[in-house]
Design goal:
The complex is a heterodimer of chains A (385) and B (247).
Chain A: H1 2-31, H2 39-58, H3 69-91, H4 100-120, H5 123-142, H6 153-175, H7 179-182, E1 202-204, E2 209-211, H8 212-234, H9 236-246, H10 248-253, H11 258-281, H12 290-305, H13 310-329, H14 331-335, H15 341-350, H16 353-370
Antiparallel strand pairs in A: 1-2
Chain B: E1 16-25, E2 28-38, E3 43-47, H1 54-62, E4 69-74, E5 77-78, H2 84-90, E6 92-95, H3 107-114, H4 121-124, H5 130-135, H6 137-141, H7 152-165, E7 170-174, H8 182-199, E8 202-206, H9 210-215, E9 218-223, E10 226-232, H10 238-245
Parallel strand pairs in B: 3-8, 3-9, 6-7, 7-8
Antiparallel strand pairs in B: 1-2, 1-4, 4-5, 9-10
Helix pairs in contact in B: 3-7
The chains are: A mainly alpha (385), B alpha/beta (247).
Chain lengths: 385, 247
């Protein structure tokens, strides 16, 4: 019985991180159909936001309320990742709707850019970047209006951005001479977030010893699920989002500004990735490559659950969590010590985290052969429409 | 055959005015110099065989299909360059062929979407006008049911009710009786007559049922992407009906 509780709790703990990580993707990929390979990097931005908030609380006037930094980090991470996602949607993804392969490639490129961004970002870099973006946005408005209507207007637009970029690079290089501004914000190595004291212990429930951080993640996941469910099912924007994702052109004809809805949906999905990033910092050190560890699992969860179904995402994530733990920890050997030697060897072979992942992935692929639409496929008379 | 002009002759009196409209799908010329106008409170009907461009004309009026040239004015304001949601907010309600209700949303949520065309949208308006339940009582009983689970006739009623809730000045109805059982067809015909009587909105209808066509004040007959005849539906001869309404 103890073993059952232990397995269930640990599976739930692994699964809840997966739910949180996949929840944003369930919105972006499940509802909008956008294959966002940079989703993991949006999580990473959330993790780095937590790191920055933690450092702000470590010194100065906020030192007294250091244990509460995590509660500030959650909404801030949502905001930072959400705004990064919004920028991504407005600049890249908007131009690629309905073209999944191009979206996949472009967002993969963005994921690499974001990884490198956190490795090399410094104050000089940020100032250069902000100046370049501001110049790129403002300069076309300063040009004589008739120029914008000429045949060579698109070339002029590109040239403006190229010049703005060059100015930004020159500025960043110039400011690089100032040591304070040239200092990288983060090192290329992993960063560690110190969990507040109240999240460091564990709760002893007799049969199972539950780490408080894991319990916090489970609670955060539950809260995020309730919030997303309420937002999508009850709020005005939720109804709009569901309408646009099911029938874009008709929603447009009803008076719904579909582009605004797209942007908001992406912001929410990306923001949720940021919240997942906060949770991940409680599990260990994080680095620029954090996203790569989660992106495949996230897609696996959303596809297994049934694209467009939040309940499917939850069941799939928890199922994968429990299965990964049962296989990876070799718990089956403890349950059935007298199993045949061949089976024993097979279970021992898969009893590592990475090999368990391989087996779970293979099982999901086999499952999808029989139920291609996942655990909870969309139903209804007009699903094909 | 009657001339193309329809009273009131002056431009200011038209609710909808389409002039020299040309629409292409790729290189295919679908609508050719279409001229059409509808007065306030008038019901006009587009007739023509399958594939002549009736649905495309409705889609270009709501903005789903871009026009290559021509002009579309609603109450004197040009709306040809606006996206569909701006046209809906300007007062064009659209009931497409095939209904296109949102399948996973409940009937109530589908109806609420109709309020999006009003200033402030759903955020400001949450009241569903009881008129739609008077017109289509079945919707009130199925408010919590998913739109995709309704029958074809019920979905059609939902689509019309949804468009009405946006209080449009012009309602575009694309084959509202297609594939629907006869009893519901009659319900829809009666409902449309009552809508015009009680709300004073204009209707542009695409229809194949002769009895529904005769309910309109005016007809526009289409052939090969252009308007080839128009006139009062009272003057529609059997020969015309045979020529333009056979599927």
């Amino acid at each position: 019985m103890d073993l059952l509780y232990d397995t269930l709790f640990n599976g739930l703990a692994i699964g809840s991180v997966l739910v949180l990580a996949a929840l944003g993707l369930a919105v972006v990929f499940g509802l909008m159909g956008v294959i966002n390979m940079a989703h993991g990097e949006l999580m990473m931005l959330g993790a780095y936001t937590t790191f920055v908030v933690q450092n702000l609380f470590k010194n100065g006037p906020l030192q007294g309320i250091f244990p509460l930094y995590i509660l500030v980090a959650i909404p801030l991470a949502f905001l930072v990742s959400g705004l990064a996602g919004l920028l991504l949607e407005k600049t890249v993804i908007r131009r690629l709707y309905g073209r999944p392969l191009e979206t996949l490639l472009a967002t993969w490129g963005v994921s690499l850019i974001l990884q490198q961004f956190v490795r090399s970002v410094s104050s000089a870099f940020v100032i250069g970047l902000l100046v370049a973006v501001a110049l790129g946005l403002v300069a076309p408005r300063l040009l004589p209006r008739p120029w914008g209507q000429r045949r060579w207007a698109p070339v002029l637009g590109v040239a403006t951005w190229v010049i703005a970029g060059l100015v930004g690079i020159a500025l960043a290089s110039g400011l690089g001479g100032v040591r304070v501004l040239d200092q990288p914000w983060f090192s290329a190595r992993n960063i560690d977030v110190t969990a507040p004291v109240w999240l460091r212990g564990s709760v002893d429930l007799g049969a199972v010893n539950m780490p408080t951080a894991r319990l916090f993640i489970i609670a955060l996941t539950a809260l995020a699920l309730v919030a997303v469910h309420w937002f999508l099912q009850k709020s005005v924007w939720g109804i709009r989002i569901r309408a646009v994702t099911q029938n874009r052109s008709m929603s447009d004809c009803l008076g719904i500004p579909t582009e605004t809805v797209d942007a908001l949906t992406f912001l929410v999905g990306s923001g949720l990735a940021g919240v997942a990033g906060v949770a991940v910092t409680l599990l260990g050190s994080v680095g620029p490559n954090l996203g790569g560890n989660y992106i495949v699992d996230c897609f696996m969860v959303v596809v297994l659950g049934g694209v467009g179904k939040l309940l499917g995402t939850v069941v799939a994530a928890l199922g994968i969590g429990v299965l990964s733990y049962v296989i990876g920890s070799g718990s089956l050997l403890l349950v059935w010590p007298a199993m045949p030697a061949g089976l024993n060897e097979l279970i021992t072979f898969f009893a590592t985290t990475s090999m368990a992942k391989v087996l779970v992935f293979a099982l999901v692929v086999v499952f999808l052969q029989f139920r291609p639409a996942g655990l909870f496929p969309q139903k209804g008379r007009m699903v094909e429409a | 055959m009657t001339s193309h002009s329809y009273p009131p002759q002056d431009e200011a009196g038209h609710l909808l005015s389409v002039r020299g409209l040309n629409v292409y799908y790729g290189e295919s010329h679908i609508l050719r110099n279409v001229d059409l106008s509808i007065a306030p409170g008038q019901m006009a009907c587009l007739i023509g065989l399958n594939g002549v461009g009736k649905t495309t004309l409705l889609k270009s009026i709501i903005g789903l299909v871009p026009q290559r040239s021509g002009r579309i004015d609603l109450a004197g304001s040009a709306c040809g360059g606006l996206p569909p949601h701006r046209r809906a907010r300007a007062g064009i309600g659209y009931v497409p062929q095939g209904r296109e209700i949102i399948p996973q949303l409940t009937v109530r949520e589908n109806l609420l979407l109709g309020l999006e065309a009003l200033p402030g949208g759903m955020a400001r308006h949450r009241h569903i006008d009881p008129l739609v339940f008077e017109l289509f009582p079945v919707l009130e009983t199925f408010l919590a049911r998913r739109g995709g689970d309704l029958s074809g006739g019920q979905q059609q009623q939902l689509a019309i009710a949804r468009a009405l809730l946006g209080k449009p000045r012009l309602l575009l109805l694309d084959e509202p009786t297609e594939g629907i059982q006869p009893s519901v067809v009659l319900d829809i015909q009666r409902a449309v007559a009552r809508i015009i009587r009680e709300t004073g909105i204009s209707v542009l209808l695409v229809e194949h049922h002769a009895s529904f066509v005769r309910q309109a004040d005016w007809y526009y007959a289409m052939q090969k992407g252009g308007i080839v005849a128009s006139g009062s539906t009272a003057d529609l001869s059997k020969e015309m009906i045979q020529r333009f309404l056979s599927v």
